[in-house]
Design a protein that fits this description.
Blueprint: H1 6-15, H2 42-62, H3 101-117, H4 129-138, H5 154-162, H6 203-212
């Protein structure tokens, strides 16, 4: 595979109006997802995904119009009752040199869910990735930024978002690197929680959820 030309890639991103740019990371700690204790391995997930996609394409070819649009962008959501038009996705954030991507991805979806729930695309919401990763992944589950116990899994992250919840970013600002859990003194009053979460394994159900419920 030829080397990636970051200059050309960033020029292409600007041409399509992307709100991020590519850069070469100083250290390779960005891929922090690992399968959970009860999850399939990466190899098994690859096999199951291919089989699921094959079944989905066969069904799609024989089915009527699907119950979801061909494309949707929650950053440029058109007015559609009961939601006003707007950007329901909070800004991209940089995890830097720590395999904490599960915390970042989980909270990005959580923040969008808050905006959609409140029907307010301009709602200011910024939850603490440091709280989710350092106070739960690391302190409770023994996970770290890198090494044999590096990374985390979404099931555990979502369970922590449900109980006890996550504080706002100013209560525990994120910096990369394994560190102790040091939240603000009134953190118990600053928690935001999800009521529940669920896994979706059907391709059709995933697309319908993304189109109607959000990220």
């Amino acid at each position: 595979m030829p080397a990636l030309n970051l200059t050309e890639l960033n020029a292409a991103l600007r041409n399509v109006g992307a709100r991020w740019e590519a850069a070469q990371p100083a250290e390779q700690h960005l891929l922090g997802y690992v399968p959970g204790p009860e999850d399939h391995s990466f190899e098994e997930r690859e096999h199951l995904s291919r089989a699921s996609y094959t079944r989905f394409m066969a069904m799609a070819a024989a089915a009527a119009a699907p119950p979801y649009p061909p494309a949707i962008d929650w950053r440029h959501f058109p007015a559609h009752a009961p939601l006003p038009a707007g950007d329901y996705v909070t800004p991209v954030r940089d995890q830097k040199t720590c395999g904490s991507c599960v915390a970042f991805g989980t909270l990005a979806a959580f923040e969008s869910a808050i905006r959609i729930h409140d029907k307010n695309p301009a709602k200011a919401v910024d939850l603490s990735e440091a709280d989710l990763f350092y106070c739960h992944a690391e302190a409770e589950h023994g996970r770290h930024c890198s090494g044999p116990s590096g990374g985390w899994w979404p099931d555990a992250a979502l369970a922590c978002c449900q109980n006890p919840g996550v504080v706002d970013e100013p209560c525990f600002p994120y910096t990369p690197g394994d560190q102790p859990c040091k939240k603000c003194t009134d953190w118990k009053k600053r928690l935001t929680k999800i009521a529940k979460w669920q896994k979706i394994t059907s391709t059709t159900a995933m697309k319908q959820w993304l189109a109607t419920r959000g990220p």
